[in-house]
Amino acid sequence: MPQSQTPAGTDIDPGFATLRRHDLRTLQVNLGYRCNQACSHCHVAAGPHRSEMMATETLELIPAVLRARGISTLDLTGGAPELHPGFRDLVRRVRALGVAVIDRCNLTILSEPGQEDLARFLADQGVNVVASLPCYLEENVDRQRGLGVFQRSIAGLQQLNRLGYGQGGSGLEVDLVYNPLGPSLPPPQAQLEEAYKLELQARYGVVFNRLLALTNMPIQRFAAALRASGSLEDYLGLLRRSHRPENLDQVMCRSLINVDWLGNLYDCDFNQQLELPLPRPRRLADLLHWDPAATPIRVAEHCLGCTAGSGSSCGGALAS
């Protein structure tokens, strides 16, 4: 790997072979940056005061695009995607098409005023919940996400469990997401999942399906914190040294395309935040007639976050 000191997000050749997209299986849509939390590791710098929200006319295109491209999964993210006023209607329409829906949920949204029936709605629609819980220890979670967040998160998981999430044979899946608290790589996912399951069940009676161990990307809020502490270059060096070329076969951008709240297309959510569009800029409406299979994927130094160590994608680690 080159030892360039190029800042994360700028175009470089990080030693990757030319990446091209396989068949498109997942449409990942960022519905907006408004969130009820402002986590220190958030790569989109979401928060309660962000006002960006996808327009209705753009939202209306999503079911048509799913049909046109034969896409099997809609991955909804934010911010807190549930805060978009069109969230529930979109989920109903997409589920009626037989398309799987992933809701990237921060768990505390389940107890926000006006969202008391959200968990029941997700269960009724058979939505797969991917929930952020960066640790099974209260002190660590509250340090990263804010005072009281851990207990509200546990209450949210217990609510989901009562509805059948994480229970064998229910068909309702809830996966948890782990992020390191600082500039380090996640530990092996399988070992960490075992520890999470033991601790959460013993302490709180909580069960879940899988743990997804994700690497913190050196962009946005996390990059700013690294820069302020003088550790950004050290972290980039760790990612370079830990690069594993075999992870390139499974990185999320090979089967996914990302849509921002304005309807612009990107190779992934991270490229979106760094304003690195597709090699030829495209819009969501283009997918009605354009097949992105075999098109080149734009890479830069931050992409090492997906290939370092065990690898990292929206679905967790790529290698054991």
Give an overview in words:
The structure is a single chain. The chain is α/β, with parallel strands linked by helices. It has one domain (26-217, 251-294): Aldolase class I (TIM Barrel, Alpha-Beta Barrel), CATH 3.20.20. 31% of the residues lie in helices and 11% in strands. It contains ten helices and eight strands. It has helices at 56-69, 87-96, 118-124, 138-145, 149-162, 189-204, 220-229, 232-241, 269-273, 304-307; strands at residues 26-30, 73-77, 100-105, 128-132, 174-178, 211-213, 256-259, 265-266. The protein has an eight-stranded mixed beta sheet. Helix 1 (56-69) links the parallel strand 1 (26-30) and strand 2. It is globular, with a radius of gyration of 19 Å. The two termini are 22 Å apart.
Q: Can you summarize this structure?
A:
The protein is an alpha/beta fold. The chain is built from ten helices and eight strands.
Question: What labels would you give this structure?
Answer:
8 strands, about 325 residues, TIM Barrel, about 30% helix, 8-stranded mixed β-sheet, single chain, 10 helices, alpha/beta, disordered N terminus
